[in-house]
Amino acid sequence: MWEISLNLKAENIDIANLLYNSLSLPIQEMRGVITSNEEHGYISILVGVEKDNKEKAKLVITSCIVEIICTKFKLSFLDKYLILPMYDKMGMLAFKKALLNFDKETDKFIIRKNLELGSNLFLESFFHFKLKSLQEKWAELVSLSNDNREYLISSDSFIDLLKFLVDNLDICEDEISIVKENEGYKIFINDSKQYQNKVFNEESVVSSVIDLSPQKINLYFNESSKAINLLEKIFDERITVYNTNSKALYKTKN
């Protein structure tokens, strides 16, 4: 049997839980075992599979680790070093999400290039000592934003920079539809699958769409809102607006 211990500091319990939950199903499908325990200030996620499934398990573990570093670790990095002028919460969430996803494929390449799965992996140590080039890359992005924070005080300048970042994100989805219902928003991928099976509020819908980075957006609403105005500005020509009875029109389209 091939075994590996994935270790995180106990203070990062949310990340440890995310890693455990992400690995549980695929490891169980390989008829492997996965357990978690906390000791001496560390949470250890122990994974074991038959040797025939070793390479398959490595691919799954690598994919999970890469995604966690590109999201959770990068977000912590941005929170620690990013200094921006006071702006509305929706705009700040959108801007941070755009930075989080900016040049993500290169981030993933750097992580994969440096990641070696032996019998033990301490994620924080791997990040701090093996991914210095990645941290330098993120630091350049943060410095660019910090150095221009006075420029970003202007609403128009802020939107211009946010639009530039969004325009340069890799496309993740071909088409999505956003339906405004009362005070919330539902997002559908390819007009069928509801994204995360939840209703997004005014502050989170824009950053969620940035996460999806779609090629085309169908926007259905009765009444405009701050979120809709921001989406129209930063996604511009990708948006088709249906300013009518969103629910009826959406059902007709399906």
Task: Outline the structure in words.
The protein is 52% helix and 22% strand. With 254 residues, the protein is of the alpha/beta class. It has a five-stranded mixed beta sheet with strand order 7-6-5-8-9, with helices on both faces. Strand 6 and strand 7 form a beta hairpin. Residues 246-254 have low confidence and may be disordered.
Summarize the helices and strands and which ones pair or pack.
Blueprint: E1 2-9, H1 13-29, E2 33-39, E3 42-49, H2 54-81, H3 89-101, H4 104-114, E4 120-122, H5 123-130, H6 132-147, H7 155-167, E5 173-181, E6 184-189, E7 193-194, H8 205-212, E8 214-221, H9 226-235, E9 239-243, H10 246-253
Parallel strand pairs: 1-4, 5-8, 8-9
Antiparallel strand pairs: 1-3, 2-3, 5-6, 6-7
Helix pairs in contact: 1-2, 2-3, 2-4, 2-6, 3-8, 7-9
Which labels suit this protein?
22% strand; 10 helices; alpha/beta; globular
Shape type: globular
Distance between the termini: 49 Å
Order of helices and strands: EHEEHHHEHHHEEEHEHEH
Average pLDDT rating: 90
Q: With helices defined by DSSP (H or I, 4 residues minimum), what is the helix count? A: 10
The main sheet comes to: 5 strands, mixed
Q: Which percent range fits the helix content?
A: 40-55%
Total strand segments: 9
* Backbone CA Rg: 21 Å
Please state roughly what percent of the residues sit in beta strands, choosing from under 5%, 5-15%, 15-25%, 25-35%, 35-45% or over 45%. 15-25%
Query: Main sheet: which strands, in order across?
Result: 7-6-5-8-9
What structural category do the secondary elements indicate?
Answer: alpha/beta
